[in-house]
Amino acid sequence: MATTTTSRPGRLLIVLGVIVVLLFGIMGLTKTWKPKLGLDLRGGTTITLTANSLAGGGSVTADQLNEAKNIISQRVNGAGVAEADITTSGANHINVAVPGATQDALVKQIGQTALLYFRIVYDAQAGAPAPAPAPTSTPTGTPKPSTKPTTTPKPSTTVKPSTPANTPNGRAWSSALGNATPTPTPKPSTPATAKPSTPPATPSTPAANGDPLKYTPDAATQAAFAAFQCTDKDIAAQTDDPNKPLFSCDRQRTTKYLLGPAIMKGTDLSDATAGIPQGGFQWQVNLKFTGEGGDNFLDATTAISQRGEGQNQFAIVLDGVTISAPSVAQPIPGGQAQITGTFTETEARDLANVLKYGALPVSFDISSVETVSPQLGGDQLSAGIWAGLIGLALVVIFSFLYYRGLGIVVVASLAIAGLLTGAIVILLGKAIGFTLSLAGIAGLIVAVGITADSFIIYFERLRDEVREGRSLRSSVETGWARAKHTIIAADSISLLAAVVLYVLAIGSVKGFAFTLGLTTLIDLLIVFMFTKPLVTLLARTDFFGHGHKLSGLDPEHLGVERLPGQMKPTARPRKTPSTRKPVGGEV
Fold first, then answer.
1. Of the residues 77, 172, 380, 406, which has the fewest C-beta atoms closer than 10 A?
2. Residue 430, number of CB atoms within 10 A of its CB
3. H or E, element range at 255
């Protein structure tokens, strides 16, 4: 006969109660009472991008994938999309979740290759027209228009030949594209008057004889640049074609630039780091070019430095946006250079990130595009909730019909499991941005069956122990000692399947795998800390301990004549009349 153990179920129930109260206390402190729903439940578009291998057969690194995610985030936000969620998935996937309907143009923009270009700056002006001055009360005549050409303001950053620098080692580069090199304070441009039907200004002058270093903007391009403003409409009309001039704005849209055709591509760069030069105190960005890129950079800096003071700027352009516009004072040979200026550490690191990662030809394939309307998302949410309630009701009905009073244990365990699951899902949405999708709801529904399996294994083992002749209290302990191994093995298989599915799958399938694994762990917690202790307490009551007909442990339901430890009604001794003689003798 198996050895029974004395358990203290009250302690486990108290610990579980503390856990539940703690979770709901955190929800109350953070004022978070609703889960974060996925786009398939609230409506929107999900785009899955798969990164291709780099040129030369190399694999995309985690840093490159994170930088690509930040660039895509800027593209989505620049398109005016609010509450977009861009995350990496696995070693080469990026998931873009955009609320509401998404146009095909945005889908194309999100997945296009990010390349960096270097362009000569021919003019720089304020990004928006300055307000017109107030008219004077005593005009002195019609002023003549100024014939003085507009000069490019002196930039606050300079490119010079490389000198040894103390570049911090082991420091993680910032993945965010924040404010980089400060842009110069340009002169306000003259307000341009245009009719509403006039199309946005775009440059069209090609390079002279195909050589971008010999390009000169003509009068039409300069007039178009004067009319160009850093507005969404004008910026959207620009095409970042390396063979044509470009009207560009900085990231703050405070300065607009007239740029020539691309003189170099970002692929000419091999590395970019941020550091402090030896004996210096100011942060700078160190550039290292490829062999061919170094020759191109020498030709470019030679041509730019000969343009003279005020005209010797070039722009670093990523996705049509001017990231930095330093000046060049002399030709720079050797394939190495430095960008110096009034950098802070953050600005230097951000610019180095743009140069280092934006220059890599990381291309993406659009693996899938799923669009769900808000109405359909609401319908799917309702359908998922109803499916869960119906499945839960069927389990409860079966439990009461087959196990009778033990169905109370099933209902109570499912209720506690539901509270724990709901609280954890809500808090994970707040803490790490976990979104509950339709696939995740499917995982929760499957978990109801997993939890019910654990009950069935335990209850059937308990009943087998009673049929073998053990008392109910002894059967509760010996049955649990044998059933828990089966429960652990079954849940371990479910958990392993969830982990494998989560690692290998992409998109919404990950939501199913995550909730399946989460609820499997919660099932183990509930069975060990609630179900078994509750059955132990119930076995000590008269209703269950003496085998009431509705308890589910009565002899008839178990298929035995009587419960072990109980006497048959017919075997009880009959009472016989007393034969004692009365005191005082016979009457």
1. 172
2. 16
3. strand 255-265
